Sequence to fold (102 residues):
Amino acid sequence: MSDFNNNSLSAGRGKALINAITFIKTIERSSPAKETAPLTCICDRKVMTVLCRSCGMTFQGRVRQRCLFHPNSIHLMDLECCPNCRATQIKEFTETEEKRNI
Fold:
C-alpha cells in the first residue's frame, strides 16, 4: 500500500509540474520578447524636453538615472522632480523640428 501512495503522490507532483511548465510556456509565447539593453555609460545622454505629468510644465533637461559605471555622478541638467511643483511624475521625450518651430 505504501507503494501505491508514493506513486500517486509522485504522479500528482508530476502532473502539477507539467501544468506549471505548460503555463510558463504559454506566458512566454504571449508576452513580447524583452530586448536587453547593452551595459553602457549613460552619463553623456543628450539634453531633452522633460514634461511634468502633474502640472504640465515642460523644460529642458534629463530625468535623473543612475549610471552603472558612475553611480555617484550628479549632472547639472538631471532632475528627480519638477522644478515648478516638485512632483516626481516627470518624463523625458524628444521633440521633432516641426513641433519646435511652431
About this structure: DSSP finds two helices and four strands in the chain.
